[in-house]
Design brief:
By secondary structure, the protein is of the alpha/beta class. Helices cover 37% and strands 26% of the residues.
Amino acid sequence: MSEILIETKNLHKSFGKNEVLRGLDIQITKGEVVVMIGPSGSGKSTFLRCMNLLETPSAGEVYFEGVSLSDKAVDVFEHREKMGMVFQQFNLFPNMTVLDNLTLAPVKTKKMSKEEAIKKSQELLGRVGLSDKENAYPQSLSGGQQQRVAIARALVMQPDVMLFDEPTSALDPEMVGEVLAVMQQLAQEGMTMVVVTHEMGFARTVADRVIFISDGMIVEEGTPEAIFDSPQETRTQEFLAKVL
């Protein structure tokens, strides 16, 4: 029996009169790589942010590891620590070195010893190909390097799932590949991942399941082969005709 890590039931989100999400149901199982695609403004990023309650749903339920996050008794911050999040913008602290950016949260919130946090951070910087940058400051790094640091910073918290919100959209085209390569490696190592992206090649290669979202609704979902090679819904076909 595959273990359900994240589940949403009838998820709605409105900003004022603008209804962005219209009743989304999803189940994401441990070890699965789910890629969400769709036109800009379709609600993909809002959906992702509702999964870890960076946005509070207007209606519906979010369950993480079987616990309802809307339950007032639940410590959302404790659950959020198990969900690594990587944004479009790198959100690194500019006045701190790369290593200090990585060790801050585990020492403060996970009560990891400074020594252990440094060891873990150095190991992760090696994994993302940036061992030589631990004493550098973010502004001296390229966008691709900063995003790889941001991924390592999320991983140092040892999350159960990684959420990626268009992690390559702010990058120059030649830097996109280096970030996607790190994400692909994570997927191969069995990390549960939910990715919002416009990178269709990545979705085709790495995803276990592709979800097409339009107008705040899940229009179609399936394997990459099913979605890219023989989409059933007209809306999916129209979208893919424009982007492929």
